Amino acid sequence: MTEAPALAAAIDPRLLEILVCPVTHGPLEYDRARGELISRGARLAYPIRDGVPIMLPEEARELAEGE
Questions:
Q1: Cβ–Cβ contacts within 10 Å for residue 36, how many?
Q2: What is the reported pTM?
Q3: Each residue of 25-34: pLDDT tens digit?
Q4: In this structure, are residues 6 and 49 in contact, taking their beta carbons and an 8 Å threshold?
Q5: Phi, psi at residue 58, to the nearest 5°?
Q6: Distance, CA of 13 to CA of 52 (rounded, Å)
């Protein structure tokens, strides 16, 4: 059984240093297992598709309670 293909791909750490949440302008956390960038302030998870972060609020999923 294989890992989720492109989702588990590493993201460049330098990119993480400059990316911020487009809603709060706050920091993002990288969730490698889910292939998402998490904004705790906005309670949103931005997907990473084919190694490219999709930083559009309408493409993000809302974090569930306790996430």
A1: 22
A2: 0.82
A3: 999 999 999 9
A4: yes
A5: -70, -15
A6: 13
